[in-house]
Amino acid sequence: MATAAHRLSLCWVTDTTGTEHAVTGTDMADTIADRLGEYRGICGIRFHPASLAACPTSRCQRCTNVLRIHRTETLGRHCAA
Questions:
Q1: How far apart are the C-alpha atoms of 61 and 70, rounded to whole Å?
Q2: Quick count: other Cβ atoms within 10 Å of Cβ 20?
Q3: What is the rounded distance in angstroms from the CA atom of residue 23 to the CA atom of residue 58?
Q4: What is the dihedral of CA 56, 59, 63, 69, to 10 degrees?
Q5: What is the pLDDT of residues 29-66, one digit of tens each?
Q6: Structural domain boundaries of the chain?
Q7: What are phi and psi for residue 60, nearest 5 degrees?
Q8: CA–CA separation, 52 vs 60, rounded Å?
Q9: In 10 A of CB 34, how many CB atoms?
Q10: Phi, psi (5° rounding) for residue 3?
Q11: How far apart are CA 29 and CA 42, in angstroms?
């Protein structure tokens, strides 16, 4: 079982082009607190969200790759312990 330090809290947020980006829970909270409305995906891109009613058309490949690497590293550390 992964420890809390290895867990990554994420929310997928759709940008105005229809692409979903993974946003960490911390960045989501910071954005809401700052009231700027600009999110930062784990891929590094900063974007404004689409309407909550907007359907995503694709998922950010860079965000997906970052998550894949994170999961691989987390599993590697877990198996090595």
A1: 14
A2: 20
A3: 15
A4: 140
A5: 988 898 888 999 999 999 999 998 899 999 999 999 99
A6: 8-80
A7: -60, 120
A8: 18
A9: 9
A10: -80, 170
A11: 14
